[in-house]
Each structure stands twice: as structure tokens, then as C-alpha cells.
Amino acid sequence: MKILNIEDESKVAGFLKRGLEECGYQVDIAADGESGLQMAKSGEYQLIILDWMLPGKSGLEVCQELRQEFPDLPILMLTARGELENLVTGLNHGADDFLAKPFAFEELKARITALLRRHTRQQSTLQFGNIRIDLLTRRVSQEDQELILSNKEFDLLVYFMQNPNQILSREQIARDVWQIEFDRGTNYINVYINYLRSKLGNAPGDPSIQTVRGHGFAFRIPDDKELD
Ligand code: CA
């Protein structure tokens, strides 16, 4: 579970990072709104902790921009004490929850757990580009056309959809999709990736499984300039 903490006060950021890492989360820090927004847009994070007052882009602007692209991403905003009247503004800009500084770490932890739990319960569909998966019915569609996948192809696609734009090694894929240790002498991952590629659309703008030489694979929407 990866959390992005967009926070310009390095003391607060360091304190949160240490505490949350002890709870088993992976935490990255961005020190200003613009770089935070870029990092958040990578799709790598399951939750964003967003400070209200940031240099460059404000927390509110970051929140609003993120919401347009990621309607379901949990965002917890931090405000300074006395800014509570801003709560309504923040909620209107798409924040899911608020915490006023200074706060007890335990409270932050409880709110994060609650946000993630709520999010997981709501998360019965996955969407990336024009591909949509309904996890309850296991139906997959691309541009409203249903794709028929085997169970393993489905699991593999779900994994790529849950980790878009990330380089996933064969070791990670073996562990997370097949629940086994990767064995270099086998090529089943390549075989299944090729099955899956043959079923996904390959029109411009369609998400595709790209081979990242020496590292693994990444599920991306190719740029126009990459298509030739
Ligand atoms: Ca700040």
C-alpha cells in the first residue's frame, strides 16, 4: 500500500513517513504542490495526504486537479488549526477527509485506515483508459465491447489495472498473480502476457502492455509520438 504525502514542512513529512512506515505503508514525500501532483498522477498511490498550504500550487488546486483524473483516489487534507471553516471549501474541491494540525498520530492512522476501508468496499470496478473491469461479475470491456478472458488472463489484467504506469518485474508478477517464486527457467509469464496482448485492442490510445527491457512490463497508454 503506497501513500504519497504532499507536505512542505520537512519535519512533519519525516514524522509521518516514519510513523506510517512502521505501520507497514510505503510512503513517498513531495515538498510542493506541482511535484506532488505529478507524482500522484503516476497512479502509483492508493492514498494521498495533502497539506493545505503548499508553495506553488495550493493543496486545494492539487486536490481539484487530481479529482478530475482520479475520481476514487482517497485524499486526506491537513489544515492548520483555525482553518476549519475551510472544511466546506475543501470538501467541495474533492477532499475525502480533513485533519487539523497539530494532530495525534493515532488519529491520522485511524482516518487513513477508515478511508482505505471505505475505498476498498466501493472499489468493485477498475478503469484504465478505455478498459473497464467489474470485479464482482468478472466482466471486462474495452470501448463497450466485452473481452472474453481465461481466469489467469483476467487475474493478470486486474493486476496491471491496479498498478498502471509502473514497471512490474517478472518476480513481482509471479509472486502477486501466481503466488509463486519466479523461476528464470520458465516463460509462462511471457506466454500469458502475449495471450492477453492478443485480446486487448491495439488502436491508438488503447492501453498496452509494454516490455521494459531488462526490467519487466508496464501497462501504459502510449503517447501519440510512440506510435509509428
Ligand atoms: Ca504547509
Structural class: alpha/beta
| General form | elongated
Number of helices: 8
Hey, roughly how much beta strand do the residues contain? 15-25%
State the fourth-level CATH superfamily of the largest domain: Response regulator
What CATH architecture label of the largest domain applies?
3-Layer(aba) Sandwich
The tally of strands reads 11
What can be said about the biggest beta sheet? Answer: 5 strands, parallel
Q: What is the rounded distance between the termini? A: 36 Å
| Helix-residue proportion | 25-40%
Hetero groups: calcium ion
User: Which stretches are poorly predicted, pLDDT < 50 over at least 5 residues?
Assistant: none
Radius of gyration over all CA atoms, rounded: 19 Å
User: What is the class of the largest domain in the CATH system?
Assistant: Alpha Beta
Name the helix and strand elements from N-terminus to C-terminus, one letter apiece: EHEHEHEHEHEEEEHHHEE
CATH fold title of the largest domain: Rossmann fold
Task: Lay out the secondary structure.
Elements: E1 2-6, H1 10-22, E2 26-30, H2 33-40, E3 47-51, H3 59-69, E4 75-80, H4 87-92, E5 97-101, H5 105-122, E6 125-128, E7 131-134, E8 139-142, E9 145-147, H6 151-162, H7 170-178, H8 188-199, E10 208-212, E11 216-220
Parallel strand pairs: 1-2, 1-3, 3-4, 4-5
Antiparallel strand pairs: 6-7, 7-8, 8-9, 10-11
Helix pairs in contact: 2-3, 6-7, 6-8
Calcium ion (CA) binds at residues 8-9, 51, 53-54.
